[in-house]
Design goal:
Length: about 120
Amino acid sequence: QVQLVESGGGLVQAGGSLRLSCATSGRTGSNYVMYWFRQAPGKEREFVAAISGGGTRTNYADSVKGRFTISRDNAKNTGYLQMNSLKPEDTAVYYCAAAVRWLVTTPGGMNYWGKGTLVTVSS
């Protein structure tokens, strides 16, 4: 089992920045690919970013490419999502997830989920 706990969400003005954290515990987190998904009100959960277990590979949704940066510190068992140039359309609950497979961009492919943290971007 891998437990995931997100933090760092909040209210920010458009153009601002936030950094989300995902603390992992349980089975060795570095064995898993870490993902960030988000779900806006009334919409389906969507892929945001992924980082490989060793942190050498990353991938982003087109909607956040160039603005968001995913990273991880396996020594601290923590992953991060740095979000810059935030837009109102980035408002959503952001979820950290873990999976064995690389670049599974569908929610159904995840093995573990956190409970989410709310990000609200005001215009």
